Amino acid sequence: MPVASDIPVPTRALLAGARRKESALLDLTRKLVLIESPSDNKAAVDDCVAMAAARASELGGMVKLHKQRRFGDVLEARFGQKSKAGRILLLGHLDTVWPLGTLKRMPCRVSEGRLWGPGTLDMKAGVAMALTALEMLTEADLLEREIILLLNTEEEIGSPVSRPITEKLAAGCSAVYVLEPAQGVAYKTARKGTGNWRIDIRGVAAHAGVDFEKGASALRELARVVETVSGWTDLKRGLTVSVGLAGGGSKTNVIPAEAWAEVDVRIARKADGARMEHKFAALKAADKRCSLAVTGGINRPPMERTRGTVRLYQQARALAAELGFALDEAATGGASDGNFTSALGIPTLDGMGAVGDGAHASHESILIEHLAPRTALLAGLLAGHA
Q: Which of 282, 300, 318 is the last residue of a domain?
């Protein structure tokens, strides 16, 4: 960790302020984690939204809830005033992959220099960091631009209702900072895009012993399809096609009349999205007695490493150096809502949340020692110190 005497005075003040608030930041993270918020439970995730909204309001934010019927509400909170410095969007989510009751087997606790619990890393600590950075800037009267904090509640299932809200708000911003977990300790400057397809196959059922030749096996056709789509993987292009789930048939002595598969696609280049959609749409059954139904498509375009994003990263790296730590950049195969904003051509920097391990896993946790320095970094970037 950095030594205070080696840090420039304005930056030293940021770091000192973040360290003073570390205990409160940890407590806020814990409170958010203790409100379990699975994406598919509107009442539960809305409770978490209510807490975050209350905290944003306490800090002077102008709070607006985008009400939803099937999913949790989307929280928008505005801080500061419009200025020539440009508006910034702080982007995150409050939903988790964990069902209600997970806290019983994964309690929220502090030990070994970590805060453990479901949703700590992905990404309630990032939300708490953003609110703390905004608090620091408000108290120091350093909010010289408008900052919009947008927290949705269905990111883990594809952001089906919040995407248009995100894109509309981002369109008026000069930069987007995404509060997702770090890649190791690095900020993320590129993410792959994602697509999901389902392939349903209908064949002809027949007795496997008496009328074998009268049957048309949907499972055999599925095997051919799996080989075909898997062959579209091109690692040099950053393109992967993975059949993750498959099934079919009814009994061992029946030629299977039905089969299905679900396919995950990752793309590093925007152009590959349209290409994959065309290839899936053109799939045909080799056995003419079988029929294929293909549904799905690209959900998130890739977040490509653009000049604007690199410029944001370079600013962050310079400020991190003043704070006394090195900040690397990384690319990842996972997607976030930053994919949407980057695809609009808006400079987007991701992975600005907590450092830890075990996102979506039973050992999910954050490293407490990184909270204050990274919150100071976020506050400095928001204040335009870079």
A: 300
pTM of the model: 0.92
What domain range is 116 assigned to? 4-192+303-383
Q: How far apart are CA 162 and CA 94, in angstroms?
A: 12
> 166 and 258, same structural domain?
no
b/e map 152-181, b = 16+ CB within 10 Å: bbbbbebbebbbebbeebbeebebbbbbbb
Residues 67 and 203 grouped into a single domain: no
* Tens of pLDDT, residue by residue, the chain (386 residues): 454 445 554 788 899 999 999 999 999 999 999 999 999 999 999 999 999 999 999 999 999 999 999 999 999 999 998 887 789 999 999 999 999 999 999 999 999 999 999 999 999 999 999 999 999 999 999 898 999 999 999 999 999 999 999 999 999 999 999 999 999 999 999 999 999 999 999 999 999 999 999 999 999 999 999 999 999 999 999 999 999 999 999 999 999 999 999 999 999 999 999 999 999 999 999 999 999 999 999 999 999 999 999 999 999 999 999 999 999 999 999 999 999 999 999 999 999 999 999 999 999 999 999 999 999 999 999 998 55
Same domain for 230 and 144, yes or no, is no
162 and 198 belong to one structural domain: no
**Same domain, yes or no: 288 and 206:** yes
β-pair partners for 267: 193
DSSP 3-state of 110 = strand
| Residue 146 contacts residue 80 (beta carbons within 8 Å) | yes
Overall domain count for the chain: 2
DSSP string, 276-287: HHHHHHT---SS
C-alpha angle 45-72-60 in degrees, rounded to nearest 5: 80
Question: Do 76 and 92 have their domain in common?
Answer: yes
